[in-house]
Each structure stands twice: as structure tokens, then as C-alpha cells.
Amino acid sequence: MIRLLIAFSLSLALLVLASLAFGDVSLTWMELYHSLGSTDQQSSMIVHDLRLPRVLLALLVGVALATAGTITLAIMRNPLAEPGVLGINSGAAVTVMAVIVLVRDPPVALLQAAGFCGAAAMALAVFTLAWRRGTSSLRIILIGIGLSSLATAGTTFLSAFGEIGNVQRAMIWLAGSVYDASMVKVRLLALWLIVPLTLAFSSARELDLIRFGDSTAKSLGQPADRIRGLMIVLVTVLSGAAVAVSGLIGFVGLVAPHIARRLVGASHARILPVAALVGACLVVAADLLGRIILPPIQFPAGIVTGLVGAPFFAYLLWGRRHGC
Hints:
78% of the residues lie in helices and 0% in strands. With 324 residues, the protein is mainly α.
């Protein structure tokens, strides 16, 4: 376990250094080294003002999405579940689309607030409608899918009748990217994630119990409905914050927990830290690849994760088909 954490930490460090060095203007390792300790060079400006906030924001977004995905898999007891199943992504998408299309030159802070509020409202609606003398993962999944379809229809309506320039800006946001990162965003997201990440990591035992089903969890003294509700709040806070600053970066919450489970087993005390590191590596690597594949064109990180996540999702479906 310790060796695995060290290996992923080193991989993440190498990805961070590569993200700082490579881009439209590539830096040698010596130039990168000097730029990290200097403030009056052009390379220092590129590193400190442009690339460092971007890579740090990608790292935090990856940690948040991976942790939220790990919690979702546990409470839904479905290997194909991710935060999008709760309607969080669709709720954020439709509210941000509405703000961009209906409000002239909306500030970035308003977009972030709209994305988070939309995600929270959708999660609340799903949990409320799924409540029937308690909750069940099946009802939550079915209602989440239904409300997500409704929100997607609203997004399509806005894109069809909105002003073309505003719609294009909204589509760029929906693709998922950290290109407009700043240290202010990094600090705010880091502060926002401290409490939910601490609560998530301290809830490993509760996630282990609820994963066995409500009957088993209740027989062992766990208030399963209350725990599921609290976990949904954590998922909303984590995913909503990540979506608010980066747009929709899909499949990280699905891929990272499965990789972690394959490597360390079923204990969430082991899965959570490994999944967080895997998620950080995935988003940082996706942002790096999006910048260096066809420069100066920059592909959003959400497109790159989609290219990786879609085959992985198909692999999971194939495994379920054969009873794996």
C-alpha cells in the first residue's frame, strides 16, 4: 500500500513537472528549474502565471471527482455508477447554460455559483423524489436518470434558441477545461475541499458497511438511509465544486475508483487515497495531452477523458455481460 501511494505520488509529480515544462512554448528542464526560483524572466511568467495555476486546479478537480465517484459506487452498489447518475452534472450544465445564454457577459464567479447551485438542486430533487419510507439505490438511479434527461432537454432547448455566440461559449464550458485557471480559483477550491475530503476519508468504515446492502448495514447498527443521504451531500459538494470551476470532465469518477479497487482491494480506507491520486493523475495528464497533441490548438480535458473513459465504460459493460 505504501509503495503504491509512493508510486502514484511520484507519477503525479512527474506529470506536474511535465505540465509546467511543455506547451505552446516548451521549456527545458534547466529553464524550468530556474523559472521556479525567479520572478523576472519570461519563462517564470509562463510557469507561475499560466501553467502552475492550471496544473494545480486540474489536480484538485481530479481528487474531488475521484473521491465523489468512489462514494457513489459504494452507496449505489453499482459498478457503472458515477456522480452523473445523481444528476449532478446535468443540473450544473443546464444552470450554467441558462446563465451564459440569458445573461449578458456573466462574470466567472456567477457561472461557478450557478454550476454549484444547479448540481445541489438536482441532487436534492433526486433524493427527495426517491424517498419512500427510506431510500434505495435503484430508485435513486432511476430518478437520477429521469431528471438528468429532463435537464439535458433544457440544455438542448437553450442551445437551439440562444444567441449563437453565447451558445458557443457555453459549449466550450460544457466540454470541461481548466484553461482559465487562476491562483484565486485554486485557493478557493482547495479551501472548499478541506472539510468534505476530510469527512469522506473518515467515512471509510461507513462506506464499507453500506456497500453490503441496507439489510446487512442496518443489522450491524448503521442508519443506512441517513448515511446514504449524508454521502449524497458529500458527493454533491465535491462534484459540484469541481464542475463549477472546470465544467464537465467526465469518467474520472468512474475510472479512478475501479483502478484503485483493482489495485488495493475492497477496503475504502485503502481505495479512497489511491483513487484520489489516480484521479489527480488522470485530469493532469488529460490537460497536458490536450495542450501538446496539436499545438497551438488546445483540446479540453473533458474530451481527452472521454476518449479514455468511453472504452473503459464499454469494458465494464462487457465484464458485467459475462458475470464478472
